[in-house]
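Dear Dr. V.,

Thank you for agreeing to look over these. As mentioned in my earlier message, I'm a first-year student in the group and I'm still getting used to reading structure tokens, so any feedback on how I've presented them would be very welcome. I ran two proteins. I've put each sequence directly above its structure. The first is here:
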Amino acid sequence: MENHALQNIVEKVKLIEGNDYITIEQTHNLNTSEMLFLIKNLKDDLIFQNKKTITLLVDHLFPYSVDETLVQKGFKLHDTFILVKHNLVELDQNPAIFTFLSINDVSSNIFLDKWSKVMQGSLNASSTFTIEEHFQSVQSELGTMYKDSYILAYEGDQCVGGVMPHIEPGTEAEGRLFYFGLLPEVRSKGKARLLHLQALHYLKDHFHADYYIGGTSTANVPMQKVFKHNKCEIVEKHRVYKWIKGD
């Protein structure tokens, strides 16, 4: 009975799964009783077994009894997070000042080197994965089309950052950027909002996305300003909890 009840609850949320991690989104679809039941039983379910990391996005409307239960079950508060949405039919004009080169055009070593530098100094909560584990996780999540999503952005001959556009698995038209960021030496020069807007156009024109879902830490004020400038609407706020095997 409990396994059947858990499966019914799991079907109401969204699961993003990689080789050794799983993220649970859209918990706003659950009431408090369902959320507590999920937390108490999820690590016993086959879907979640053998995962190195379980990440749970707790909608900000849930009472703190949910947080207390998560802590009791070994989860730790990792971040507070906002999710935004943009209808890609209503985009501002494409600035088109950057050249996008995918991993089909540059070597994986160059991509990993630039990506690791893009992640330096990020105002988002630190990742529990190494750069190599991130690389493998994206491949696992996106499948054979992952190379089209590994993109470096150049302004002339200078690499300025990286974007990872893709259609969210399990959907037909939900565009996301698995990662977005600038190299440290080109930050604070007004390039972020231009690169982000061009990436949204890329999602629309090359991946045929109808809408965009993005997110950032509440501590990442610069990224929130980029979202606001590019007319993204805040649709959800979360407390992000993580369970890490052996931690």
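The second protein is here, in the same arrangement:
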Amino acid sequence: MTAEATQPAYSRVLLKISGEALMGDQGFGLHPPTVARIAREVQAVHELGVEICMVIGGGNIFRGLQGSAQGMERTTADYMGMLATVMNALAMQSALEAIGIHTRVISAIRMDEVAEPYIRRRAVRHLEKKRVCIFAAGTGNPYFTTDTAATLRASEMSCQAIFKGTKVDGVYDKDPVKHTDAERYNAVSYDEVLAKHLGVMDASAIALARDNALPIIVFSLEEPGGFRGILAGEGTYTIVRD
């Protein structure tokens, strides 16, 4: 393989994963072997010299919308969901540092004993020093999802793409788990995602990505080496762009 062929497609990216991705086969909480496996996927990309941001959801611990649906005041429920993302970020930090990757957890809600406050210029400097930055607590505001937080942070950090790790290898016209005739898109526009309600990310996140010309790459987090493979120009995925 030539030196040119080994150059990654992007030099700075944001990886967005759901909290449920950390559960493994459990129905709740964290599954340490699964967290460690995802950390190794991040390590493989880090070794290419790519600067990496991460945003992890909190649905494996607490989901604000579900709490609200059960009668909890929405703002309180959303703040509880933000705290769940901090727990997941700390777990991922522990797994990454166990394999030698310097990491910073950066929280939109101040909790100085466990995480750094979000200061954009400081976060950029961490990335330049090849530290993985895990952005926690969403945007710090209720009524915004971690999808929107991921798109916001990717834009602020001047990332070249958002990688959305899911259980399937791209975006389909219908649920591939329920429909055997579901067809995968190789590429799809932001407007088509919104018009067809394809469920890549919530509408606010898609609109923000579109306004900032930020491509979203949807791939399977279950496929070993999939994250690194896409950066090397291989693998199966769907890209969302204009």
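From my reading of the second output: The two ends are 32 Å apart (CA to CA). The longest helix spans residues 74-98. Does that match how you would interpret it?

Kind regards,
E.
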